[in-house]
Amino acid sequence: MKVLYVPPFLRHKKTTMDIPFMFLLLLGVLLVQLSESKAVDSIYANQAIKDDGNTIVSRGGKFKLGFFSPGKSKYRYVGIWFNNISVCTPIWVANRETPIADKTGIFILTHEGELIISADGGHTKIWSSNSTSLAMINPVARILDTGNLVLWDNTSTNNQNLIWQSFDYMGDTFIAGMKIGKNLVTGLEWSMTSWKSPDDPSQGEYIHYLDTNGYPQMYGRKGKVLRWRIGPWNGLGNSGIPSDTPNKIYAMEFVHNQKEMYQTYELKTSIIQRVQLTWDGKILQMHWIERLQEWIVYADVGVDSFNRYGVCGPYGSNNINMRPFCSCLKGFEPRFPDEWEASDWSGGCQRKKPLDCASGDGFWKISGVKLPDTRHSWYNVSMSLGECEMTCRRSCNCTAYANLDIRGSGCLLWFGELMDIREYDEKHNLYIRMDASELAGHNISQFSYKRKKEVIMVVLSIISAVLLLLFAVAYACKKRRPYMKQRGIWDALNKKNKSVQMEDTDDLPFFSLYEVAKATKNFSIDNKIGEGGFGLVYKGILVDGREVAVKRLSESSKQGLEEFKNEIMCIAKLQHRNLVKILGYCIHGNEMILIYEYMANKSLDSFLFDETRSLMLDWPRRFQIIHGMARAILYLHQDSRLQIIHRDLKAGNVLLDADMNPKISDFGLARKFFGSDDTFTKTKNVVGTYGYISPEYAVHGKFSTKSDVFSFGVLVLEIVSGKKNRGFSHQDHGDNLLGHAWRLHKENRSIELMSASLHDSGVISEVLRSIHVGLLCVQHHAEDRPPMMSVILMLISEGVLPEPKQPAFFTGESHGEVRSMSSADEYMITQLIAR
What we know:
The chain is an alpha+beta fold and 835 residues long. The chain folds into 6 domains: 1-33; 37-77 and 99-166, Bulb-type lectin domain (Agglutinin, subunit A, Orthogonal Prism), CATH 2.90.10; 170-303, Agglutinin, subunit A (Orthogonal Prism), CATH 2.90.10; 316-445, Hepatocyte Growth Factor (3-Layer(bba) Sandwich); 486-598, Phosphorylase Kinase, domain 1; 603-834, Transferase(Phosphotransferase), domain 1. 21% of the residues lie in helices and 27% in strands. The strands form 14 sheets. Strands 29-35-32-33-31 form a 5-stranded antiparallel sheet, with helices on one face. Strand 20 (250-256) and strand 21 form a beta hairpin.
């Protein structure tokens, strides 16, 4: 849309200048304007945008403003949407409450600085920005590359006289640069409001806003009913939202000064991202994937069916992985037991013993929870934790305290009942006021010295007896066959030939040995579908007709009770589309059996390394498998409550369903983890599979989430090449698969790593990006490897990738070699030995 701007003195004043001079002056103004702006991103006074395809586009081409119709609607609206994607996705709508029924709409900027939408060719006023100012000299409305429509008085070169902006009037979308909060001077609130339906942008039932009472936190309402609460700012992100913690995609920020209080974020990459409050009350963080030409949900930070505000009542704790998912905090009991039995937890809990402030109370420390509702709280940004405790002790009405910042500074005090607590993997400590008798150790401190001595003697006697019993059991187990070493304790607790149900598995079905034997035709060899480190795997059909995979611990297995229990406890609490689902278990005498959902296509290695069956894995399927594995590992590392390190990721532990979707299995060696990506845990018992375990784990016994990242990188290179890392040796240099891939990358010949079977289906850009990401994951030093969140984004984005460093176990010019510690097959670890 080309516009000629005529200065006011030519529009409103008479002049005696001659015609040639005026013509030259007008021509000069036109040339200046055309040179200043190659793309039309602004509208000026009395300039109109009509509903005939006219638009303006931000200078960098990121956003567009014009008339549009959302979804299946025929009504017309003025809005702003992403310009460089194929799906019209509005981020702001002007006349959301007053649509236009036809294409007679006009969007115009008046001389007084007011943006107006009118219909019927300008005769009917539909919407206004209400930004009129008689003192305005040269109003200009411009759409910025942030997506913000700004209106300013263009009297200075810096354009600093801002009059109005669209970011102050959010709709259902929150993008980088927008604010959720409040202007403390003007009272203007920035909040998200849902659409009425996918096709109707008028204000719906849901609103997401920042509550400034007490310590600020964000709430969601449906009408007047409070539906959800996002925990307060903890210095790194919002309490209870793991995805807010520092990452390579975006940076969250909380600003609190005398003028404003708000949360915002900025993008660190070129990825296109938005947060949407959907018409049905979900808060979805979404990324645009150019390859798929669609938006994908990166995170769901809204309310779920178990996370409505205060569902467990005062002093109740919500854990969606437990049944029932509401429980009382330590020292508390249900206020209305009958209602709790009927699954109505809204009444919450009450103290078992009332507080006695005069005689002295104590504090019980808990962690791994979203901080309670902070509307009735007090805070100080400069206090230490010790000062915070003393302040709370001095007030009998203070019920809990915590650091304001998760990194260990500031003070946050609660007064009154603690509401809306939910368990998360978060390291923020909360100190709850308790009667001294409810705290461990406080009873002993009230005893006399003589009484303490008696208690200590009794405790020591008990410990000695237990140790003697354990030594006796261990000796008895040692006499038994090697494969039964870890079963000795279990046999001592259970009668032979009797089925026994484990504790803490109420939500996991128990099967009798009779049911399992019947399903597998008495473990018939004809039903055998595989074999692994745990034992044989059989196909079975249950009484209800379900097909299942039955994994039976074999006599020769080096795994046993510990791995059996570990797998049940881990995987039963994990729910992800790319994790294999456990359906039940069986314990009967010496028999230990796990029952899983049946995977029709068995394991990835049965396709990948088979010359014939590998032809069934074209590149789209392999790329899909890579993505599915990455999402599952990210879930294990970050999004699941338990935070799991698998420790045995390999092609044989990736199962494929009937649609070739990948599902990670075998959690016998998995470990719960408490720490960041670069935090290590050390073990003397190094376990895993040759070719997949990381160097720091193989040599020093140190493992972290980066150990799984290494294994994932090996899998990616195997999937691309169709070759096993273990046993691979190039004829020219003798490197393993990692070393060979590294050499090709340095010589810009990475495409030669691609399996010959992919020549017809391979997408070169995706193949090269996958190899590059695989090499980043197998770098020698753990701190150089990217976390799984970054891995996923690197796989789906088109941005420039960092250059990988030398991979682990790379021999180079004969500086070292990799040798196995023994000749045992798939369960040997590796060590790096200098030649």
